[in-house]
TrEMBL record:
<dbReference type="Pfam" id="PF01906">
    <property type="entry name" value="YbjQ_1"/>
</dbReference>
<dbReference type="InterPro" id="IPR002765">
    <property type="entry name" value="UPF0145_YbjQ-like"/>
</dbReference>
<comment type="similarity">
    <text>Belongs to the UPF0145 family.</text>
</comment>
<protein>
    <recommendedName>
        <fullName>UPF0145 protein AQJ30_31690</fullName>
    </recommendedName>
</protein>
<dbReference type="InterPro" id="IPR035439">
    <property type="entry name" value="UPF0145_dom_sf"/>
</dbReference>
Length: 121
């Protein structure tokens, strides 16, 4: 099955391929659509902040914060894929994440890359 085949939901591969590389072996960039991004900002939960503060005193993984960051990262990536799909792309190249503090109230996660249409060589 090629990248162009989107199937009826049976193919476990996504209809928009997301890679951190600038190319995909066996495929050529047919068209560059442009930059796409997915952005989300999560506020800090007071309970998890207190727990993280206590945990940081004794060391170890901050599981609650890790779980929240994974969910936030996944949401940003889903939004990136939705934007790429809406613009007609079947792939996103040079995919990256940027994480910053948002005015001391939360964490901003931005997923970004270049939306393209790939064709098999």
């Amino acid at each position: 099955m090629s990248i162009e085949d989107h199937g009826g939901g049976q193919d476990p591969r996504p209809d928009v391929l997301v890679v951190t590389t600038n190319d995909v072996p066996g495929h050529r960039v047919q068209q560059v659509i442009g930059e796409v991004f997915g952005l989300t900002v999560r506020s800090r939960h007071l309970g998890s902040q207190i727990g993280a503060g206590l945990k940081s005193m004794v060391g170890g993984e901050l599981r609650g914060l890790t779980k929240t960051l994974v969910a936030t990262r996944n949401q940003a990536m889903e939004r990136l894929v939705e934007q790429a799909r809406a613009r007609g792309a079947n792939a996103v190249l040079a995919f990256r994440f940027d994480v910053t503090e948002a005015a001391d109230v939360g964490t901003e996660v931005c997923a970004y890359g270049t939306a393209v249409i790939l064709a098999q060589e």
